[in-house]
């Protein structure tokens, strides 16, 4: 059972080598970026614990830090702790890293900072994750049966396939510089999931919001303080300007 869980949840482990392995082939979609939406963050934390934390740790985040997104310690214990971990413990997986490496060839990376580390010329790390988790499709030529448009030939299966269902990309042949090229134009649903496409996008948006918040829990506070600092500096600049004018007004 543990091996099965690891196989299904080894998502994002190949993210660290995405650009080296060929990069993205489609533009990244814009992530929601609602790190101040507590309901979204709470749902994202639930998805992270249920679908990602079986294999991927978040060793720089403690469970009780989730109080910052509106959860009480009791809610964390009742809904997000499924092992003997304490509410003050860090989000670590219980599997042996050596065994995982023997089974799958690599240890799944820690995801605490993944939303900050995956930024690139096409957008932020959150944009990449939002695109990556929404562009899986069935590909029976691959060992896992899955492929991904944002990361072609990805070695990880889709951990959210029951929610999303099974899809296949639709291409259209177009002429480019005198040559015929296949251009991605959309998706064809092969098997519907338990969520509608809109609901699935919203769920992934919540998960990415949480990953973005987890990468820097203090970012909203930092931005609020920054606004007040700029307001203070603006007022102080005006006062200094008027004092300077009053001081030099009688000096020619």
What does this structure look like?
The chain starts with a helix and ends with a helix. By secondary structure, the chain is α+β, with helices and mostly antiparallel strands. Strands 1-2 form a two-stranded antiparallel sheet. Strands 3-4 form a two-stranded antiparallel sheet. A two-stranded antiparallel sheet has the order 5-6. Helix 2 crosses helix 8 (197-215) and helix 6 (125-132) runs antiparallel to helix 8 (197-215). The chain is built from 9 helices and 6 strands; from the N terminus they run H-H-E-H-E-H-H-H-E-E-H-E-E-H-H.
Fold blueprint:
Blueprint: H1 2-9, H2 38-52, E1 58-62, H3 73-79, E2 90-91, H4 97-104, H5 114-117, H6 125-132, E3 136-138, E4 146-148, H7 161-164, E5 165-176, E6 179-192, H8 197-215, H9 219-248
Antiparallel strand pairs: 1-2, 3-4, 5-6
Helix pairs in contact: 2-8, 6-8
User: What is the global morphology?
Assistant: extended
Average pLDDT for all residues: 86
User: In whole angstroms, how far apart are the ends?
Assistant: 87 Å
What is the count of structural domains?
2
**Radius of gyration based on Cα positions:** 23 Å
Helix content: 40-55%
What would CATH call the homologous superfamily of the largest domain? Answer: Cytochrome c-like domain
The number of strands is: 6
Q: Which structural category do the helix and sheet elements fall into?
A: alpha+beta
Q: Please provide the ordered H/E string of secondary-structure elements.
A: HHEHEHHHEEHEEHH
Quick structural summary:
With 252 residues, the chain is of the alpha+beta class. The chain has helices at residues 2-9, 38-52, 73-79, 97-104, 114-117, 125-132, 161-164, 197-215, 219-248, and strands at 58-62, 90-91, 136-138, 146-148, 165-176, 179-192. Helix 6 (125-132) packs antiparallel against helix 8 (197-215).
